[in-house]
Amino acid sequence: MRNNKKDGFVNMSEALNDFKSQKKLSRGFLKVDINDAWKEVMGPGIESYTTQVKLNGDKLIVSLSSSVLRQELSYGRSKIVTNINEHMGKEVVKTLVLK
User: InterPro entries, alphabetically (predicted)?
Assistant: First the structure.
């Protein structure tokens, strides 16, 4: 019987996580991941009114096309920040700016 496991080989997910965790690359991947997190946490209804999601340091800047929605979301800023950080698995966002 043939042994398919080879010594010295690394699992693909482990290799990708190591690759993503490199200092120069992690910030770029984080910006992509935060965009996906916004879409998944907020849902398709709010996503349709979102024009831009940008991470600047620990500040998440979100541009919305509806001033009414922007006002409604401003009441729940802390809950949105908490949900996004939970989705990301670490504290990435400290403040949320709605434009």
Answer: DciA-like
